[in-house]
Amino acid sequence: MGAYILRRLLLIIPTLFGIMVINFALVQFVPGGPIEQIIAEINGEGGVTDRITGGAGGDVGQSGDVDYQGARGLPADFIAELEAQYGLDKPPLERFFNMMWDYMRFDFGESYQRSISVVDLVLEKMPVSISLGLWSTMIAYLISIPLGIRKAVRDGSRFDTWTSGIIIVAYAIPGFLFAIMLLVLFAGGSYFQIFPARGLTSANFDQLSLVGKVLDYFWHIALPVTATTIASFATLTLLTKNSFLDEIRKQYVMTARAKGLGERQVLYGHVFRNAMLIIIAGFPGLFLSVFFAGSLIIETIFSLDGLGLLGFQAAVGRDYPVVFGTLFFFGLVGLIVGILSDLMYVLVDPRIDFESRNT
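^ Microcin C ABC transporter permease YejB, sequence as received from the core. Prediction below:
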């Protein structure tokens, strides 16, 4: 197992390098950039697209090649000073390798927009995204696995039919639409004012007791976590049911029953371990998808200042240190989580041996 883990760890380097190369190359063809943002702010101009004059790459590319709209009247040395300040006066290839060298030392630089380190900025936003990702994934597993097992055991029954209908409806509702519906119904929209409509904590959070802080925290995250959980809950329930159904129909289950073992012994002593392999394999992907993919819309609707909103604002504002720094860090986290998924395979079923596979 040690050799397999070592190979996977070594594969992280070219994989992560490839991710950064592709994204850095794509940025070279995106109009606009931090220099244009600053010039537009100085001139009081509008959106990013209105400030673009053409020329793919904008100020992401080389110094002196870009005609910044609104730059007329600004001294050329001032523009050159800005480019030097942000490191945009160097060729793209040199900037890329300088960036990667810094990232390998976990030096992610400072945000263009807020003038604080990218690490501090991410740590500032992390609690919101962790709250959504962790609780949503945990609740999805705690509900979906028992429900999926029960549906498999009672396959074809009225319970299975009715719950399948509810699950399909839940899966069909887009997360953002469900979030809006929760706001309208329970956050003072048109009906009930039960939960707060925004934020992770109340304004008087620091004055509350420990128990009060815990209750206030869960009171605030109840609606966003519910909205985030709905789609993953539906998918995971059906996945659990199908996995258990597939195992229940295998020969070894019939043999165990023929030996006189009870249904619970067969289900949890034999079927559970094999059926749970695919569920465990999907845990990293589910967590990361909830943590990143679904966070932007939910954070926006519930006014939560997390990583999803941070990434969106950084992309729109061409805050490249934040864009590439978070891409590098969370890409690395995703690859490591993939290795942990394989280790969980072995933990659940020691018969699995990745060493014997040519991967």
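Confidence is low (pLDDT under 50) at residues 46-66.
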